Fold:
Amino acid sequence: MTPTLHRREVVESLLSKRKDLLVVAGLGSTAWDITAAGDTPLNFPMWGAMGQAAMLGLGLALAQPKRRVLVITGDGEMLMGLGSLATIGVQQPKNLSVVVIDNGRYGETGMQATHTASGIDLAAAALACKFPFSETIFEKSGIEKLRGAIHGQPGPNFAAVKVVAEKLPLVLPPREGALLKARFRRALLGDSADSL
Amino acid sequence: MQPRDWPAEIHKELAAAGVRLVGYVPDAGHKRLIELCQADKKMRAAVLTTEEEGIGLATGAWLGGEKSVLLMQSSGVGNVINAIGMMKECRIPLVSLVTMRGQQGEFNPWQVAMGQATRAVLEAMGTIVHSADSAEDIAPTVNAALRLAYNSYVSVAVLISQRVIGIKTFQEQSEK
Structure:
């Protein structure tokens, strides 16, 4: 099936009325996507450490079991940390969702094909890793269902959302890692963040 | 004389510091400590497929206000190099407890390159390295590493010398 969904619209829908959702984005296009939907201290857009977005989400979900945690990352970034699906499968965090915005391309480096372009099935890998909910989504109707899962369904949840491979204007979040960390912790933990 | 129970001493330090999350890739040298952490109801021990995952795990935990520790063998240090740069850029506190191979009396030549490069690699990536060369050094060194990391928002590794662990043959390792 040829993808028809557009990544910025998908991410904007997933993040609309996000309430107190904690959001981690993998480096590259998904970090620009969450920023285009509205930069906030409870976004943690990564500028490096490729392959670690899902694990960062796991650490956060385990530390904050009462909050919903969403990782939004690209197919290339997820493929680099495929083992983390197994690690998440062992821990079974009910409050974690991992959404891959899958355009089948390494978008920042010249749109080279990723493994998913050859039919490697990330949602099947997540199912095999004991994610109770895991789907490949092509349609708008699937996005609304996914939004519901992210906000309330016991996880870990996984989705690969197939999107059009397109080059979009960059919408950049702050770059400095220490700033991104400090603002996230203050927004989440309050003033006590500085004295923990 | 009974051999010193340094893994129990480490566990006591971790508990006292309020560490709740323990990421690990198993190592014979960490066997007892892993078991102690698994048995501790206040801790969650998370087995990783590769040591690199421990960097993301610790970063996420700290964003959520929780202290963690990463247990690995020296070979695993090679697996964390790019990711550990995030600790420096984001000023995330990290304590890594590394059991050393490729040092004194190593029987496996494939361990030697990484074992000999462990300190240099960590230091090149901005991690502060403490080493513990005897069993009685270990707990105070871990205590100091926890204080340094969590008071100063830095990555600190404690290298536990092969002299302490003392694995000398494949046979001895398999019987551990």
Observations:
- Chain A has a mean pLDDT of 96.
- The first strand of chain A starts at residue 22 and ends at 25.
